[in-house]
Amino acid sequence: xxxxxxxxxxxxxxxxxxxxxxxxxxxxxxxxxxxxxxxxxxxxxxxxxxxxxxxxxxxxxxxxxxxxxxxxxxxxxxxxxxxxxxxxxxxxxxxxxxxxxxxxxxxxxxxxxxxxxxxxxxxxxxxxxxxxxxxxxxxxxxxxxxxxxxxxxxxxxxxxxxxxxxxxxxxxxxxxxxxxxxxxxxxxxxxxxxxxxxxxxxxxxxxxxxxxxxxxxxxxxxxxxxxxxxxxxxxxxxxxxxxxxxxxxxxxxxxxxxxxxxxxxxxxxxxxxxxxxxxxxxxxxxxxxxxxxxxxxxxxxxxxxxxxxxxxxxxxxxxxxxxxxxxxxxxxxxxxxxxxxxxxxxxxxxxxxxxxxxxxxxxxxxxxxxxxxx
Length: 374
What we know:
Keywords: Amino-acid transport, Signal, Transport
Strand content: 15-25%
Strand order of the largest sheet: 7-6-8-9-10-13-14
Signal peptide: 1-26
Distance between the termini: 48 Å
Number of domains: 2
Number of helices: 12
Largest sheet: 7 strands, mixed
Pfam families: Peripla_BP_6 (PF13458)
CATH class of the largest domain: Alpha Beta
Family: Belongs to the leucine-binding protein family.
Protein name: Leucine ABC transporter subunit substrate-binding protein LivK
């Protein structure tokens, strides 16, 4: 892993040593970048993460900050686009920011991780669930505060098998890292259990007409549909499916659990099933944190607000734990310790994935609310 140390930085360090007997010239704040979509169709996911980070930083700063310094959030837009992942990562490096909460979408996250790891920046994603973020990479600096698709996919499949008991299942996906990955996981688990998958097909994200795949869906005879992807496409599949008389129940991962889906799908969203992180707002020990969100008119109950809050907490606690603003030491601390957060006491395995994470199944309603499936 390469540590940033340039001739200019060396000269600055030498000058600081000459001017101040205490040595290095310290920054006034400790910056944490928030990397995610703040433009485009998936901006609400970026907003969820930003609200979580902002609330955590406000709480930490009000309690005195970290090592006597205040935390400062720096928001950087990647549009949820893989090609923007390295661009944002290099900006973080050039701006000498040592910590990142993000990226939000798996594709952009995968594209950015190598830069962070090589340059000694701690990255904690609260939302990127693709196994490819960490698998086989031997990264030291990359972490998550959310489970993986190979945890979420089997959880969804187990639910389908035990609770829904469908005759035929259609599995659709958006051909992207996140969507196709989790759809493949669900398909594999269903087939292992002897559930017949009538069709497995990709759609093009961003299209406005899915009538062709809906026609194939109707012809397949499937009475249950699993879709791997994000809410804009799921919303259209629900609405256009209802218009064509599709009676099958639909289910998707946390990427479809976005209130904006209601405006797209209309009443056809009622009854959609979605796997999401457990609703940590119901934990009585989080009452003060929930109040901190609501006092700022922020919703703590979305998919990623409390996982982002927890990512920020983990970074702050690790800096305190090592006693200095050193991202390499912070990463080692995270690998070696358990940290108390709103999503529980969390710890990481060698590749930066959580040792344990709980996904629940929720029923989505046309008023934008959700309830745990009963």
